[in-house]
User: Fold this.
Amino acid sequence: MTTLTSHASPILSPLHTGIAAELEPDKAWKDALRAKIEDGMATMVDNAKKRLQSELNKGPVSDERREALTQEYQRTMHTLRALAQDTFGVELERERQERRWAAGLDMTPTWNDALVQEQQDIMNRIKGAQKGSQSPSATEPPPAGQLAEARPNKRASLLSENSHAMTED
Assistant:
């Protein structure tokens, strides 16, 4: 039997509990994410089923071959389930971190770094698409650390500043 101690889970004050509850995506959001992931993986699941049926329908199949094909199908389905669960976990944590950011709370450092890199990649793609129509000063990268130094609750202003800077000149 597992017992929890104060070391295993910190006690949250009512204020922290309320904030955490507000930041947690609701059941409808989670259900929609599950449906999106299932839709995205439907082709892979269908292909695995078709491959199994195709092999079984080729003609007489020995018991050993049938067993091998069934095991291969089950391994594939297990892998797809694990991929779906991992994707769900990553997307759920991303949503939690984005909600923390929108609320002006600190994000986990690794998520903060990933978000900064994601924003930089987006800006680079936009600049690449507009390269021919922009002046050289508008396509220079931002000063080092500009995105990393931005406060989480200034996300909208940072994004609008970057898009405004890219459209000037």
In short: The two ends are 68 Å apart (CA to CA). The mean pLDDT is 75. DSSP finds six helices and no strands in the chain. Helices lie at 14-23, 27-56, 63-102, 109-130, 146-149, 155-167.
